[in-house]
Design a protein that fits this description.
mainly alpha, 99 residues
């Protein structure tokens, strides 16, 4: 993946992104990015920036998934169904809590 940088790379980070992730996956990713000299948080920022630059996912999807948008999209195969209902209104609840 080639990361292109436009604008001010050191712009203030005023938005917060919260996600749920398997703890072993999180630890493995943190270790990987630490070994690469960066952080998992910075890797997520790079992913978001590159996604915007290329207008989509910054890598090819190759799982051979045949799901459609109406059935949850190609990423629904990776989603934890047990968390769907719990996370459905997570953003709205977080915004309410801030007020």
């Amino acid at each position: 993946m080639i990361v292109g940088v436009t604008g001010d790379w050191t712009m203030p980070k005023e938005a917060v992104l919260q996600i749920r992730i398997d703890s072993s996956l999180k630890e493995a990713a943190e270790s990987l990015y630490h070994d690469m000299g960066t952080t998992f948080s910075e890797a997520v920022r790079m992913f978001a920036r590159q996604s915007v630059l290329v207008g989509g996912m910054p890598f090819a999807l190759r799982a051979g998934l045949s799901r459609t948008a109406s059935s949850g999209g190609v990423f629904s195969a990776y989603a934890n169904p047990a968390l769907r209902e719990k996370e459905k209104d997570a953003f709205a609840h977080a915004m309410e809590a801030k007020q």
